[in-house]
Structures are given as C-alpha cells and as structure tokens.
Automatic annotation (TrEMBL):
The keyword Protein biosynthesis does not apply. It catalyses: Hydrolysis of terminal non-reducing alpha-L-arabinofuranoside residues in alpha-L-arabinosides. GO terms for molecular function: alpha-L-arabinofuranosidase activity. It comes from the Bacteria. Keywords: Glycoprotein, Hydrolase, Signal. GO terms for biological process: L-arabinose metabolic process. This is non-reducing end alpha-L-arabinofuranosidase. Its EC number is 3.2.1.55. The lineage of its organism: Bacteria, Pseudomonadati, Bacteroidota, Cytophagia, Cytophagales. It comes from Emticicia aquatilis. It holds the Pfam family CBM_4_9.
Length: 657
C-alpha cells in the first residue's frame, strides 16, 4: 500500500510540474530606457449612455427649462385628469424669447381658484435617487405677475408618499431666483418631485431644479460625488472631452459649440443629444444636452483631479456616418476663431475677453491648457484640408499648443492608410487611433507599436475597448476576457512609450437602465456606481505607470504573448521603485523564475493581483466586487524570486529599488 501511495505521489508531482510551466524572466533595473509621459493613461469622456445629464452632472430634474422638442416631456400636470381642460387653473408654455433667446420657454401658471390643487410633477432620469438624511437644494427662476402664489415642493417616494418638502415664497414682479432646502426622511432610487402652486394669481417659472448638497467638493449645482471620485481614483494624466461623436453632431447645427456651454447656466442654449435617435435597439427620445456640464465645468474637474485638459473641437465637418455636412473652406473662420478663443478662455489673462469670462465664472487663474484636438473621427481630404487651416492659425498665435489629429474611425484599412501617409506632410504632432475589436485582436496586437516610425508623429490611443460580441452590439459585456486582453495590449503601449504618449478606454460612463452602447468603463444607477474589471485594469496601469521603461525579457525576447504571457516594466524615479506588470492570458498556471538586475540584497514587494477563473464573468450593480484587485506583500532577496501566475491573471509588483 505504501509503495502504491509513493507512486501516486510521484505521479502527481510530475503532473503538477508539467502543468506549471516555468518561464525565466530578466528585468534590468540599471538601464532606464524611454520616458513615460505624465499623460500616458487618461480618461475619455463623452455624453453617451446618459453620462452627463442624468449622470455626472448631478441635476435631478429632467427638462428643467422645458426646452425639449416636446416641452412637457418628463412633466405631468397635477391633478392630471383636471388640469389639462380646466378654465379655472391653467399651465401653459409662454414664449419669453425677448427676455432670453437661448432659453425662451417658461411655464405660465394661471391660478384663478385658490381652493383647487394645481401643480407639476417631474419624473427625473429613470426616477430620482434620494438618500435618507441628505439635504437637497430646490431652486427655480420665477416672476409673480399678479396675485399671491407660493410653492410647495415635495419629494415623493415610489409609493407616492411624501418623504421631504419645503415651501418657497415669491416677492415682486421681476425675475428672481427662488430657493428652498429639502431634507429626505427615506432612501429611494425611484422618487419624483411635485411642485404645487398655492394661492391665486399668475406667475411665470423656469429652470426648476433639484440638486443634492453632497456634490463633488460640495459645489452648488455641481457634479455627482461618487462618479468624480471614481475618476480621481484613476489618477488620470488627462481628460479628453466632450467626445467623441458629440463633437461632430449629426449635422453642423447639432455639433458641440463650446461658447454655448459657458457663462450663466440659464443662458446656455440646450440642444438635442446626437445619440438621441442613433441606436434603434435603444431609442432615447428624451436625450438632450442642457450644458449645465459645460467647458468651464470640464476644465474645473480636470483641475480638481490633477489631469491635463484635452478639449476636442469641431473642424467644420458633421459626423461622416450621418449627414457628412461640411462647412465650406472659405467660411471656416468661425471654427478657427473657436479654437483661438478657447485657448484664450483657458489660458488668457483676466484682461482678455475670454479670460475675463473665466474669472467671472470663478477661476481667475489660467487652466494651463497645453493640448487641443481638431476633429474627432473624421477622414479623407475634406478633413485634412480643414485640419491644416486650423493648425496653421493656432500655431501662428500659440506655437506651444500641441494639436491632436485623427486617423478616422478605424486602426486599419484604406482610410487609416491614407491618414498615415497624409498626416506627416501636415506636421501632425499627436495622432488619435481607435480600436474597437474582439479580445483576440488586443492580445495579438501587443506588438503593434514595436516597429512604428520613431521620427514621425506620436500616438494617442484615444478610444479602445475589447468587444465581447461585436462592435456596438447590445450584447457586449465588460467581462474578464475583455479586460485581461486589454491588459495584455497595454503592455505594448507602455513598452513603446517613446511613440505612445496618451491612451484612454472608451466609453467612460453608462447608466444601467439608460445605456446605448456597451461595453463601458463605469456603470451607475440613481444612487450607486461601480467600476468594471476593465476599470480596475486601467487603474492598475495609471496608478503604477512609473517614469521610465526598463527591459523585461524572456530568453532575450519581449513578453508579447508566447504561452499566453505578457509583460511590461518600469522604474518610478519619484519613489525609487521597480514596477513589473505580468499577465497570463492562458488557462495554465505559470511559474516565473524572476531575476531583477539592480536590486538590493533584500527588498519588500507589494503585489496587486486580479484573477478570475471564469473569463466570461463580470461585475454588476448588484455584485460590483466580483473582479477587483487584491493586495498582498512578499519579500525577495538578491533580486530573485519564483512567482506564480495563475490562469487568467494580471499582477503588478512594486519593489523598492
């Protein structure tokens, strides 16, 4: 019996040794190679999937200024059955274009019978998320034309019970901002807001608003705190905004115009969101842009989280997937001026027109804009002509501003090849490439930039995400295979940091009930949010970038997918650490026989691990922590260690040098 057990044990040891492949990995920490730019890992923001209104912008009232195509969208008249056909009490839309041409519609309230109830109810964005004990700021613009009317504002829960209220009075016949504070007595993700008009008389009301007081940095009318915190935790090198195809618009009239997004909130001109009717599988007729989150707020957020701003402007071409509408070259001056004025808005002194506006809005100090994007996903001669004109004008006045141009919607094919040939002739500086591909493409393309021309433009990997089921299909998931494949691809981005200056996953945000496109980096509902496995991969790279690359090889070759192994390594000169990233995309366990040249006799190592046996698994709003990083610690002597890489794992090692 003992002989049989010995044979079985020996057999199992042989099987285990065979299953755990050993790979020798050499890291040279004595010879720094190329600089990793501070902008290497950043954020791409676009208002898709209700990322701005109903998302990052913390406003809880939908269609607050009644400027949707149908002005009563998101609103109910109260009592619903009586108000529409009442001659005693009426709610009508009044055109105030002489008073405010950018925001002309207001509600006229005629309350002739003070005994009868009259009011409005707003449904919010898929309901209104309210938290017990939190305070909420109600506000509106109103004028009392005659009589005496006060407002009773209520938050009602999903059972139509009042869970907080305030009374607001009006004084005088001039437009005034009226305010009140509501403290919630209950948590409910699906509330509504009632505004009842008490008394008798006539008033006009507009910009009906409700904000949580607990916003990012406590700013009134600010950003949603948990969502900005997720961005800040990434420690991004830059934020690209406002898109994306939002920049282009389906038509030129619907393009994003930054000048309409600054100044007083009530004077910003709302437009339809270009994703309003784009996806037949997810129609969103109530998707508009109020621009409460405008260019000033974007710059301010960048300032807050220590990221370089990268605004993208229209080049005079609407989306070439939609209308392909073009501004004639001879009439391109407004687009050129928009670029010049934006630089002044961001960097100009308070004695300049646009610098003065920035100061008036609350930020006298410059925003230190260093980069500007011209166009988004445009292609062909019509793009190159317009880019050339804007580029010459910008560099004539602001030679230190770096411009970002694009290669079209894909990272290969005829349009991409044309851009590769043309952009060097235009002295392109940083060029945006996009990749929405299957996970295998990302694993296979970890060497994409190994042989890129080092003497031409630099690369901005501006939009990428592994697609689990095909580009732009509603079945795509943020599963572990996608995230792990992106981690493998990113080893090649980091290894080639002398070519690749900037990278960002896309899209950024999605509401769990109101999305149009998947996959996305961060998901949220009305009260909570979570990072996907892809988010944590991005976070591990951004938080562990280092300042210079160093060599990491196996048998003299880079780790670029042989046996499913990928690797990247750097040093952080600020903390005097060696950083090693190792990825195992195979179904087998690998033992890494690691040798680091240039370490002390003994070193402490922080290990951050992500792994998941089921590569189709993913985080959800109800199970947000299925796949998250886990930290541990080990020590190594003389720079040597045996490390275990489990199947489908990603590990980061930070070692004191």
């Amino acid at each position: 019996m003992r002989k049989t057990l010995t044979l079985i044990t020996s057999f199992l040891l042989v099987i285990n040794a065979f299953a755990q492949k050993t790979t020798k990995v050499e890291v040279d920490a004595t010879k720094p190679l190329v600089t990793i730019q501070p902008t290497m890992y950043g954020i791409f923001f676009e208002d898709i999937n209700f990322a701005a209104d109903g998302g990052l912008y913390a406003e809880l009232i939908k269609n607050r200024s009644f400027e949707f195509e149908y002005p009563w969208m998101a609103w109910k008249h109260l009592p619903e059955a009586e108000t529409r056909f009442s001659i005693q009490n009426e709610l009508t839309i009044y055109n105030n274009s002489k008073g405010n041409p950018n925001n002309p519609r207001v509600v006229r309230v005629d309350k002739r019978d003070e005994k009868k109830e009259l009011g409005l109810q707003n449904e919010g964005f898929d309901g209104i998320g309210i938290k017990k004990g939190e305070k909420y700021d109600f506000s509106a613009l109103a004028r009392l034309n005659k009589g005496s009317i006060s407002l009773l504002v209520e938050i009602i829960n999903s059972k139509n019970q009042v869970i907080g209220s305030t009374t607001v009075n009006l004084l005088g016949s001039n437009w005034q901002r009226i305010e009140g504070v509501i403290t919630a007595t209950e948590t409910d993700p699906n509330c509504k807001v009632n505004v009842f008009f008490k008394g008798a008389g006539q008033l006009d009301i507009d910009m009906i608003s409700l904000f949580p007081q607990d916003t990012w940095k406590g700013r009134k009318g600010g950003l949603r705190k948990d969502l900005v915190q997720l961005l800040a935790d990434l420690k991004p090198g830059f934020v690209r905004f406002p898109g994306g195809c939002i920049v282009e618009g389906r038509t030129l009239a619907e393009r994003y115009q930054w000048k309409k997004t600054v100044g007083k909130i009530e004077n910003r001109q709302q437009i339809v969101n270009r994703w309003n009717m784009e996806f037949k599988h997810r129609p969103t007729p109530d998707y508009y842009q109020t621009f409460g989150l405008g260019f000033y707020e974007y710059f301010l957020m960048c300032d807050d989280i220590g990221a370089t701003p990268l605004p993208i402007l229209s080049c005079g071409l609407a989306c070439q997937f939609n209308s392909s509408e073009m501004q004639p070259l001879e009439d391109l001056d407004p687009f050129v001026q928009d670029a010049l004025d934006l630089i002044e808005f961001a960097n100009g002194g308070t004695d300049t027109k646009w610098g003065a506006l920035r100061a008036e809005m609350g930020h006298p100090a410059p925003f230190n804009l260093q980069m500007l994007g011209v166009g988004n996903e445009q292609w062909g001669e019509e793009y190159f002509e317009r880019y050339s004109i804007i580029s010459k004008a910008v560099h004539a006045k602001y030679p230190n501003i770096k411009l970002v141009s694009g290669t079209g919607p894909s990272s290969d094919g005829e349009l991409f090849e044309q851009a590769e040939k043309t952009l060097p002739k235009l002295n392109a500086q940083i060029v945006d490439e996009h990749y929405y591909k299957e996970p295998k493409w990302f694993r296979d393309n970890a060497t994409r930039y190994d042989n890129y021309d080092r003497n031409r433009y630099k690369i901005f990997a501006g939009e990428y995400a592994a697609q689990s089921n095909g580009v732009a299909t509603p079945d795509n998931k943020n599963n572990w295979e996608c995230a792990l494949s992106e981690a493998a691809f990113m080893t090649g981005l980091e290894r080639n940091a002398d070519v690749v200056y900037m990278t960002s996953y896309a899209p950024l945000f999605a509401h769990v009930n109101r999305w149009q496109w998947t996959p996305d980096l961060i998901w949220f509902d009305n009260l909570t949010s979570f990072g996907t496995a892809n988010y944590y991969v991005q976070k591990l790279y951004a938080n562990n970038a280092g300042t210079k690359t160093i060599s990491i090889k196996s048998n003299g070759e880079n780790l670029t997918g042989k046996n499913g192994l990928y690797g990247a390594s750097s040093i952080d000169e600020k903390t005097n650490e060696v950083i090693i990233k190792l990825i195992n995309t195979s179904s087998e366990t690998h033992t890494i026989d690691l040798n680091i040249n240039g370490l002390a006799a003994k070193a402490n190592v922080k290990v951050i691990s992500m792994l998941e046996k089921d590569i189709k698994n993913f985080n959800t709003i109800t199970e947000p922590n299925k796949i998250v990083p886990v930290e541990s610690a080990i020590s190594i002597a003389q720079g040597k260690a045996n490390l275990v890489l489990e199947p489908y794992s990603f590990k980061v090692f930070r070692i004191k040098k």
